[in-house]
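Protein in question passed on here:
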Amino acid sequence: MPNDLVIDETWLKDTLMKDFNKWSSPLNTFNRYNDNDDNNFNEFISLTRYNNRNNNTDNDKCPPCFNCMLPIFECKQFSECNPNTGRCDCREGFAGDDCLTPLCGSLADDNSNRPMRSNETNTCKGQCDDGWSGINCNICEMDSVCDSFMPDSSIKGTCYRNGMIVNRVFEGCNVTNEKIIEILNGKLPQISFSCDKKKQECNFQFWIDEIESFYCGLDACTFEYDLNKNTTHYNCENAKCKCVPGTMLCGKNGSIDISEFLTETIKGPGDFTCDLNTHDCQFTEPSMNDLILTIFGDPYITLNCQSGECLHFSEIPGYKSPTDREKMTWSETIILTLTALAVLTCATLLVLYIANSPLFKTSSIHLSDDEDDDMYYSNEDVAHAGLNGTTTQSFTNKLTQVITTIFGLTAVADTSIQGRDDDFLTSKHVAALSFENISYNVPSISDNNSERDILKNVSGIVKPGEIMAILGGSGAGKTTLLDILAFKRKSGHVSGDIKINGKNVSREIISKMIGFVDQDDFLFPTLTVYEAVLNSALLRLPNSMTFYQKQQRVFQVLEELRIYNIKDRLIGDDFERGISGGEKRRVSIACELVTSPLILFLDEPTSGLDSNNANNVVECLVRLAKNYNRTLVLTIHQPRSNIFHLFSKLVLLSSGEMVYSGEIRRVGEFLKTNGYRCPTDYNIADYLIDLTFDKEIKSVDFPHRDLEEGLNESSGSSTSFPLNTGINFGDDINRFKRTQTQLEWEHFAGHRDELSHLLTNENTANDSANIQQQSKIGNRKRGISIGKVNTQLLHTRFKEGAYFMDLNQEISEVVNQVPNSSNSNSTSTLSFEIPDLQRGASFLQQLLILCSRTFKNVYRNPKLLLANYILTILLSIFLGTLYYDVANNISGFQNRMGLFFFILTYFGFITFTGLSSFAQERNIFIKERSNNYYSPIAYYISKILSEIIPLRVFPPILLSVVIYPMVGLNMRSHAFFKCILILISFNTAIALQILTIGIVVKDLNSSIILSVLVLLGSLLFSGLFINTQEITNFALKYFKNISIFYYAYESLLINEVKTLILKEKKYGLNIEVPGATILSTFGFIVQNLYFDIKILSLFNVIFLILGYLGLKFIVVEQK
């Protein structure tokens, strides 16, 4: 038979058939094993060799392989024999075929990976891994070496060395019996001891100079702890011991042999007792005690032991398991109560301050007449009168007075102000506005290389005490001209010359000299008439003026515009009833007039008003111009005839062409001179618009022959006739679309000869020739624009006539500073010098005023504020009830995740109210900014302070105060205040992000859609829907870095769960796992709490800056 393990199948078959009985036993054994298992086959070979040795007369010299299934082989240390392999499953720290060879290294490694102890040194000293000790390196010494025993690599282990068994303990003991030490002649007796609580078994080995002499196994053990004595007792019912042959005490030359005694006498019970304070132990077993007493004179073996067991810190005896939530302490209750009281106190004081703000509170000041000398107040009077005109002041009034004094809104008259302020509207400074050759063109939509003319060489002049009306049909260029004269920013190219009192003035200076009233009234609906005008006065009047002087101006303007009687009524809007449209228009005018502008521009001030309101508005404007030498320029569309004659100057435009510019009383004369006459019963303004309106009549056949004949037949007529009437070319008149005014013109239609006279006039010969040439095109359809014909004729006649020369002469006089002496207001006594303009409200004053206005807007329209607070409180109560008394387990962790995610989602989407809030104020801001009310930074900061703080700071505090005690969230390590900080940082960051979108995107619907997409994207990468650590796509893995939800969600969970111990059944073990471990499985980084808070703060700064940049450079007036 071959000696190796590779057996030829033919040889095996022949050998087995020779003597079946001799091989039957091992063959049966062979059949029990799998043919494919090498170990089973080896065992089979060992069995056959063993059988052959017993039956072979030739005495086979090949020894059998080790197989613990055979009676001649034994597993030492009472290790178990693996029936499948025939090998011994050695206990930790032992190896070799029979488990007698000690191992070094550490218990953290498997036996197969640990190095065997050298036979030359017979010791593991210097061969144990760091943190391990003992005869076979099984005793831990440091916590870090126990990490590998934890179910997860992120869990930290603890080396428990107190000696009390928890799961499986290893101990190394020195024998302290003096007799035993003396008999061994200086050789060190030691014991290695280990117990498994779950298997209820223990084993120990007796060593002399680290060479094992015998070993014992104990089972049916109980493990007790005596709290009073602080001792442990391991009691095992059964015990058995065996010697290691050839060692001291077990047959070594010159030594006694106790092998038979150990095997036959030691039966148990065994007891291992230790004092945990001194680590002194004793091992007792009846038979062994007799032996020790007989030979050595001691009652039992005494020991001094050191133990080590790797555990999770929650398994250490005495550790209080957090199975139930701890009740709130008194300190935590006080913290919550004080926080709630602080919020309520701040809110109450804020409301009281706003309600008593001197910036908007009307006082007892009355309009003074000419003989009144009570305009100013002494310091003593003010101190006694108070801001409300009473002799007593409330604490709030005193507080607000101090604040206004600090910010420069002093109630004491400034001694630098000389004279009475009653006549501020009749300032000695006046302004004459002249403009020449104003042109404006924009790029053509159809052809990028060409430009479209909007205005072409428009000129005019208006002096103090005069009102210039810019008249024309829709699209004539009225508003464009007005914007250019007011130095508004235009997107196209402007050319021409604009002068104030004959001087070129920069945009910065002229913007402070003028007032501009838009066509639409952009006013805060929650302010009263008085408050709206006072707001303009406080922001724009010189800083040197006192509060009472500014207030006096407001009252005088209100009286002048006849809206003093409605000063305490709210302005209102489409949803809240307020003042009428005409009153709103006068309020808009008052906001500009209160600054006493030298020139006031108004864009269609009568648009949208009924005839009565329109008349009231114009009458107010006329009084301002005539009585106070103010210069007014306005656009108007189809004014009433009585209104039209109230104006002083007229600029008539048609398709950007200047048809007429000059005194309005001479326009009829100009028309009559050029062959036009307005019917006596017809509105001259309507006549002018219809005359020049670009009304194109398309697809009408005009045989050139009939047109020529008609023109030639009437060449000698001198009667004037308006060209834009319905001319009767036979039946062709029925092809014209009748307008509202056409019936009034038809009785002039028969005067065909007047048309010929007009077109054959000496001054219009060229125009007539052009028209006749165009009429020879042929018998085909084409479009005729009668308005264009009229415009071109009148424009040419005006530019070439005396009226234009008079206009240029008047402009030259102003340039040379020669006032018109015929002016009824005696302008020669007035100053045409450009006045030195004083600075308005300072930045801090602007900020205070705007904050007060915004706060007042918030609390007067409390729906949004109250809805936010009430909804937050109700939601917090609901969530507190739903998640009441959350447990510290895995389901509790899931509940915490859901709770925090819902809170963040709620606060995230409720910030959408900021979009509509700014959308309502966008036009107001544009108007006020363009009229130099304040700087963008002042408005932006006031917006943040007045809306972000009450709407985004207080609700998270309210929610936290309610949620924390009801749900039972973590209050340790200041977690409550950290949670508030995180929620406020998140809420403000999201609010600023949404506000930035609302600023950049003008359309409200588009901004809402974009905001939803941004928030949904941020939600997706928050860490709940996808583990951000598992994203492998390079383009997507960094999306979480721009997700505000991710940083807020991670920091909230870390703040809550990091210090908690949660129960979890993991890897088949019932263990208590730190919350940090669960967080790591979800892809959150436990160390990132403060990092996340910093990132949230960074988001606040970024969107704060982006929002301001958008407000400054995007939300601008561009016409």
Notes: The two ends are 110 Å apart (CA to CA). The chain is about 40% helix and 15% strand. Residues 330-355 form the longest helix (26 residues). The chain has six domains: 9-55, 138-315, 351-425, 433-437+444-666, 670-814, 862-1113.
